[in-house]
Structures are given as structure tokens and as C-alpha cells.
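B., you asked whether I could sanity-check this one before it goes into the benchmark set. Here's the sequence:
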Amino acid sequence: MIWQPHPQLLIMTFPGVPSELYPMWQEVAAPWLGQQGYVTHTLHSRVLLYWGIAESALAEKVQSYFQLQNPTVAPYADYGQCRLRITAKAPTPEAAKALIAPVEAEIRALTTPHCYGVDHDTLPGVVATALRSRQQTLAIAESCTGGWLGQMLTSIPGSSQFLIGGVIAYSNGVKQSLLGVSESTLATYGAVSAETACEMASGVKQRLGSDWGIAITGIAGPDGGSDAKPVGLVYGAIADPEGTTVAYRQCWNPSRGRDWIRQVSSCSALDHLRQRFVIFSETKA
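And here's what the prediction gave me:
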């Protein structure tokens, strides 16, 4: 409701439910205020999304941009990822976007390859788009994440176009029988190791007939860790279409809890795959 009982008093009321309030503000209130001459400038923001870099490290790379007045640049961190919000003030949205564009380009150049998207992008969505554009498929093998990675990917509508399937392989027997991990690898290096992760990734790729394979194995806790392999230790691996398999190692803070470790491990696997797409494409160029 928009009510102006006399020229010096304007009353605007909205529902408290955000899903109702936001569209009413954007579709009714904001245009009305503009038409009445209450708005002389607009604020427009562009949010750059990052994974695999700490907020402090990201802030150090773009420190000089924090001094800008228009547009402004501000860092944020949230559940494993970092964001940089670039906000400009101008008479029109188009003018604000024009102020943001050169700053965004400079920041992207400084922070490659950690920027995975903008605004409302997600890691699963970015990976899905990349696989579709390449007309390639993916298969996944999960141990400590227990299907979390699969759930993230299948949340994308039409995921059957790029996701062949996956194996949740908690026991060593399943790793051997379904993924082809060798007994000697498990005996020598253990289930939580770069070697096992590589064999899981290449195994699920071969068994399910996909172009790419991802594997995750680790110790999500709260028990099961040791001095050599503490809770929070996670290995992942990416198998590419030409048969090359690359492993990575991460050690997450166990105080954040089991589900946090599982979620960020899944996100990290997607980000490693995203970056492998770039490297693989460059070798083919």
C-alpha cells in the first residue's frame, strides 16, 4: 500500500514475508518513487564470486581498490567462499554499470583463476554450463562426502544431460570391486590418499563411460583421524578425457564440523574441475 495523506507525509506498507516484499518493492515501490521524483540516482552492484582463496589473500590482491569512492569495492566471506561487491552510484542503471565494468575487468585480471562467477552463479551451475557447452559428461566417486557432491549436481535441472552417475564407496571392498582401486594401493597408501583418489576418479570414469571423473576421499570426522591423517584431511582427483588424472590435497578445520567438511569438500571438487576445464582447453588450443 502506498498512501500519501498530504504532501509532507508518505506511508508505504509491505508484507513481512521476504518473498512477497522484495518483488513488490522492485516492481511497484521503486518505479513509483522514481516517477514521483524522489529518486535522483540509482545504486547498482556486481558481485564477483570466489573459491579456493582466503578472504585475506583476496583482499591483499585488490587492496588498492578499497579506496575507490565510486564505484566502491567491499569484500565478504561466507561458508568457504569469498565475494567482492562492486557498487556504483549514477543517474541510471546503465551509467552505474558503465562505471563498474572497467573496475570489474581489472579485478578479474588480478584474481584469475579463483573467480568462478558473478551475482547468483553457483559452482554446480557453472560446472553444468561448462559440461553442456563442451557436450561432455561426468561421473563421480564419493567416499567421505557420501553423496553430497551428487546432490549438488542433481539440483541442476536437466542434470541427466551431463551427469552419467556416481558411486558412494565407503568401504575398501566397494572401492576395489566397483571402482577398480587396486588392493596394493589401498595397502600401501590407505583409502585416504592421493593415489586412491586418482584410481577412484579414473575408475568411475571408465566404468560409467564418462568424459570426466571426480573422486573425493577423506576423513570428515568427528572420529577416525590420526596424527598422520587428521580429521579434515581430504584428497580429491580429476580424470580428464585423455586419461590424465590429477590429485589435490586439502586439510579443513575439524572444529567446523562433519557436515561443513563434506560440503566444502564437494564445492572444492567442483572448483578443481572448473579449473581443469580451463587448463585442458588451453592445451588443446
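One thing to flag: The chain has two domains: 40-121, 123-277. Otherwise nothing jumped out at me.
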